[in-house]
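Write out structure tokens for Amine oxidase domain-containing protein.
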Amino acid sequence: MSGHVHIVGGGLAGLSAAVELAGGSERVTVHEAGPACGGRARSYLDRHLGCRIDNGNHLLLSGNPAVYRYLGLIGAQDTLVGPGRPVFPFVDLAERLRWTLDLSRGRLPLWVLSRRRRVPGMRLAELRGLLALMEATPDMVVADCLQPGSLSRRLLEPFAISVLNTMPDTGSAALLGAVVKESLARGGRNCLPRFPAQGLSESFVDPALDHLATLKAEVRTASRVSAVEMDNGHVTALRLGEARIAIGPHDTVIMAVPAPVASSLLAAELPGFSAPDAFESILNVHFALPEAPRLTGGLAQARFIGVVGGVSEWVFVKDRILSVTVSAANRYDTRDQDELAAIIWNEVRAAIDPAATAPLPVAMPPLRIVREKRATFAATPAQDRLRPTTRTMAGNLLLAGDWTATGLPATIEGAIRSGHAAAQAVHARRGLPGRPK
């Protein structure tokens, strides 16, 4: 007998689950507490800057299978763009050195043999750090694996910070190793940089909502679940303020909210529930120029550049918006935001000007600072052990979110995988075949 699946949370994990389930035998309803879906991966109109911006920057890879599966289901696979080669421009501000990491397309890492294509100053012996990451045990941190030298300082440490959103001295080597196995270890064909042609919502959210509407799934925004009622090991009702939604014996609840929200709703009701409880912030600064800069070289091809030796980590060129990401940003919590913005703007000029046909203005342009205080769980070994599986002790309650035990750090790929896993668990509960992976 079919039932009603209530998905609590309209971020990418919840939307992924809904997309997998819509059009099947189950009735699907998404309850999103906020005014719009998308969670930490959405776009919005910034009136101060006079344009739409993303609330954060996300650099995806061509080898992200769950991302492309999801985009294929919602008809948005062509909305991601990027260079035709696995190229990653970088600048080392401290050394005033620029280079482009140009990976080999196949699994054989021929790029390490070419001084033109590899990280300047790297030693081949440092590659042992990559092998150590892929073989890391759950208790190891990234710093345990890296070899001292240019490859670590100019690539692997920045890579770790951006992927884990956690510093290398505390970040989980096993989680970073999982990403290495799915990217660098599989060759450049899986490492083509990808990002939305327009914005996160235009790629990941709006097409999903259109798809769900076509398949008669219901998406309710401003629908905040305030409590979960349970009895005899099953969810019996969801509370939305004064309203109460009864959960029948054939219904399922997928809790796809952030970890702190899930803890507040479930910890007292669900024996043995655990979730990450330490978090790292991400700082994004969006600068609005009068017109888009004209770029040359590798930066013109990639439309982004990695920054080493500064506060900034990645600078994305999005038409006339220069958007900067600073990961693991708890370390800057006590810094004055205006001071940080000024430092970051000077770093942007140093990164962009040598590849632009005209220099950027010295005076800082209009900007928007977006700080996600709990952007991701702190990807430490201890926090990784707190991540729960999809299934819970309650027979009709499932979990989804990048903070669940996906085997990956808190990424878009992980969030979408978690939604797919929850949908597969719904099918398994019914004894129905799920959609093929």
